[in-house]
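Subject: Re: docking follow-up (NPW)

Dear J.,

Thanks for your patience while I sorted out the input files. As discussed at Tuesday's group meeting, I've set up the holo structure prediction with NPW included as the bound ligand rather than trying to dock it afterwards. The sequence and the ligand SMILES I used are pasted below, so you can double-check that they match what you have on your end before we go further.
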Amino acid sequence: MAQKTLTSTIVKKFIPARKSKSRKGENGIVLVVGGSYIYHGAPILSSIAALRSGTDLVYTSVPKINVASTRSVSPNLIVIPLVDQKLTRGAVNKLLGALPRNLDSATIGMGLAIQEKNSLLHLVKSLLDRDVRLSLDASALIPDVLPLLANKNVVVTPHAGEFKRLFGQSPPSSKNERVKLVEKNAKKFGITVLLKGSTDVISNGTTTYLYEKKIPAMTVGGTGDVLSGLVAGLLSKNRKPLESAAAATFINGLAGKVVQKKLGLHMTSMDLLSEIPLVMKPFDKIV
Ligand SMILES: NC(=O)C1=CN([C@@H]2O[C@H](COP(=O)(O)OP(=O)(O)OC[C@H]3O[C@@H](n4cnc5c(N)ncnc54)[C@H](OP(=O)(O)O)[C@@H]3O)[C@@H](O)[C@H]2O)[C@@H](O)CC1
Ligand SMILES: Nc1ncnc2c1ncn2[C@@H]1O[C@H](COP(=O)(O)OP(=O)(O)O)[C@@H](O)[C@H]1O
Ligand SMILES: [Mg+2]
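The structure tokens for the complex came back this morning:
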């Protein structure tokens, strides 16, 4: 299968126009589920990235111990407490009862502690049953979730370690072998796989995009959390997993390039957030 290198021309087609006459909510409503006692920042990074990608509303669900600190970061976030410190069946049932009716997309896993595996499976299945477009990251990337995802327009965003845990094989160092392994698993499980690294590989098993970034400053913690928010933000508007994942990784890289040019190897993931509007603005279309 031929791989295509991501370019602005390709990505421009993946970012939907905004209608002048649109109303709040028509340009994307996103849910972010993540965070834990130790990793409070991940869902915040993801949520602000989702907002900055050009959505209307982002709901951030974090364990109740993190609610105050998460709310204090920004009035832009609508925080829905998870009633337990970790993801449990009870916490998921309460969350499902509190969700906005017209949710477009969700990203789950960044920084999340999962107490009961079945609670994650229940959350994933319930959201898919509501036709919510899903992006799974970090703790949500466990093999048990795979049977729920086939042909449901889901994106998974593993780094190499999460890829091994999810699919049972470590991505090889050879680019061609890496691409083949991503394509094989995307096809096998009916999902879009975004394997993160110095070169991101994005495939749904039929079409594959490569995005080689010369931005080693992006190895700092949290850049993948930002990416998960961008994927969910794009999914909420484009709704196509491959295009949303490809556009998200391209935008994350564009922001990374700007920050590395400015700050060298001293980037933090927060720096990425402030660059997202500037790198996305050239792609804006109003109809
Ligand atoms: N401020 C916050 O709140 C932040 C919160 N964050 C949250 O932290 C959580 C854990 O994040 P994480 O994935 O980095 O660690 P972890 O789950 O132990 O990885 C599993 C194992 O995989 C491997 N491995 C890792 N990367 C690899 C790679 N690129 N290529 C190859 N292998 C790699 C590595 O195994 P090793 O190499 O040690 O054998 C590692 O032990 C996650 O939920 C994230 O969202 C972070 O985003 C930071 C900011
Ligand atoms: N050497 C590198 N050069 C450029 N980008 C990289 C490099 N290594 C990782 N990245 C990017 O950094 C992010 C890493 O994701 P992840 O490991 O999930 O980070 P975290 O979980 O800390 O947010 C991905 O977006 C990936 O594309
Ligand atoms: Mg990560």
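A couple of observations from a first look. The longest helix spans residues 241-263. The mean pLDDT is 98.

Let me know if you'd like me to rerun anything.

Best regards,
T.
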